[in-house]
């Protein structure tokens, strides 16, 4: 059973009452996040690029040495590549010289690489010729389709022209089409078109504006003008 609605025997008062604490006293509890932290700046240690170290360094000299090293590496690399090419060519020449003349046949080609390159060139030329032939065939087929399409459109247009005019197609449609001109019943009467102008029909239109309404306009014409 709850006691929230029951009256207290002694009303709650702030201060030194029974079961109460002094509300005016400062609390001694505080969070660790409220404590002061990072109260000291961090400085660069030795070896982390301090001001004295940067002041004593000669950046221009270091840059020149780095550029000189890169140039030396590039020149040595360019010198190594021709030496490798000359070594491979000399090795091939030695292999050809070591082959005995008795083992050579008159029908055998001396240079296999040249024959392979010639065969590759022939295959490439054949493929290019086949590609050109396929392109020509496709272009001719496309042109033929476009011509047939234009002819069909022209035929349909001429059929529409001939069938749309009954005078040109009168012989084939004589039994179905009536060529008589239909007239109205009042085309030849005496009293037709006698008045110069038809009377204007006035329609009452409601305008939701007191200055442009019909009543205001009549009132101004009658009493003001």
Description:
There is one protein chain. This protein has helices at residues 51-56, 59-98, 112-164, 214-223. The protein is mostly helical and 225 residues long. Among the domains are: 45-79; 128-161. The radius of gyration is 56 Å and the shape is flat.
- Helix proportion range: 40-55%
Shape: flat
Largest sheet: none
The number of helical runs is: 4
Poorly predicted regions? none
Terminus-to-terminus distance = 91 Å
InterPro entries: Cwf_Cwc_15
Region (Disordered): 1-128
Keywords: mRNA processing, mRNA splicing
Protein name: CWC15-like protein A
Key descriptive features of the protein:
225 residues; mainly alpha; 4 helices; 48% helix; flat
Question: How are the elements arranged and paired?
Answer:
Layout: H1 51-56, H2 59-98, H3 112-164, H4 214-223
């Amino acid at each position: 059973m709850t006691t929230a609605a029951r009256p207290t025997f002694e009303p709650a008062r702030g201060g030194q009452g029974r079961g109460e604490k002094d509300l005016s006293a400062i609390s001694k509890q505080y969070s660790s996040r409220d404590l002061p932290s990072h109260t000291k700046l961090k400085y660069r240690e030795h070896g982390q690029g301090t001001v004295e170290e940067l002041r004593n360094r000669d950046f221009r000299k270091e840059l020149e040495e780095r550029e000189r090293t890169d140039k030396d590496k590039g020149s040595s690399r360019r010198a190594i590549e021709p030496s490798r090419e000359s070594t491979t060519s000399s090795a091939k020449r030695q292999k050809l010289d070591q082959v005995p003349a008795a083992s050579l046949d008159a029908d055998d080609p001396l240079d296999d690489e040249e024959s392979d390159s010639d065969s590759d060139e022939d295959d490439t030329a054949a493929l290019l010729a086949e590609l050109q032939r396929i392109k020509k065939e496709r272009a001719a087929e496309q042109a033929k389709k476009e011509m047939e399409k234009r002819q069909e459109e022209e035929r349909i247009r001429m059929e529409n022209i001939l069938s749309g005019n009954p005078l040109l197609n009168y012989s084939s449609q004589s039994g179905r089409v009536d060529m008589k001109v239909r007239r109205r019943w009042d085309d030849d009467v005496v009293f037709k078109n006698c008045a110069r102008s038809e009377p204007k029909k006035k329609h009452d239109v409601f305008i939701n504006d007191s200055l442009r309404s019909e009543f205001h306009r009549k009132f101004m014409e009658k009493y003001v003008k």
